[in-house]
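Page 47, continued from p. 46.
Same chain as before, 311 aa.
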Amino acid sequence: MFDVKKFIGETEGFLKENLTGTGVVACSGGIDSSLLAVLCSLSVQEKIVAVFVDTGLVRKSDIENIKKFYSAYSINGRVVDYSEKFFQNLAGVTDPEKKRKIIGKTFIQAFEEAAKEIGATFLLQGTIAPDWIESGGGKRETIKSHHNVGGLPENMTLKVIEPLRDLYKDEVKQISTALGIDISRQPFPGPGLAVRIIGEVTREKAELLKKVTEIVEKEVETFPASLGSPWQYFPVLLPLQTTGVHGDKRSYGLTVCLRIFDSVDGMSGTFTKPDWNFLDQLSTRITNEVPQINRVLYDITNKPPATIEWE
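Result:
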């Protein structure tokens, strides 16, 4: 059985011993990095600065939420707008592995710039076991490179510390609960909406997907009867246009696919089976409120054979 108190004590000791200078905590606002930021604040608060990078690929509420999180846990944190650089680097790229590695390198550029400003020499990441397993760690085949593992450049100027790298998501949740961290927020990928935009990533596509994502999250969170508490729920924007009708006029609109998924640790799981009325309601809201979308699909694939995210 996993010993939460033992892990917290050992991690605080590890941080005090190994963080010999100032460190930047890569804080995305997700459960993994939030746990790391709190553990750092409890043990080496005076040595760390948490940095949230606005990639332009985050959800509408993410920046506001990270600021509230910093305040609630007395974390020395900041938000860095690096969105223009991300979209520049991703222009014309369609291969999912290339996108992930570009995102990883661009994140490091942002963190290195922030580190230079504050005189930091360490980068602390909330990497957990599924991240490095799927990225091909431990002589495994690469399934997909996680931005915080497979996307790291070889010539980094910062020393990386990853105190959570042997944990699985259910263990992260146990520790977070013990420390009073809200675990109700669903997992969100580090590369953000980039892995939910199939094909080239642009600012226009990202803004469109933000609107649809907000609708999906609000609908799922207010319609629990048929869904229970799914692990993740999000739309994917496909590089596919189809004929439709808006009002009495022909449209040639975009397609999104909904992914609602149940899991325990993120390593495997099954698609959620909501009732048709819920899917009908959700599809109607999306196509009414986002006129660029005229077709909504539903993903009925488990993991394996699919991963939770599409890219």
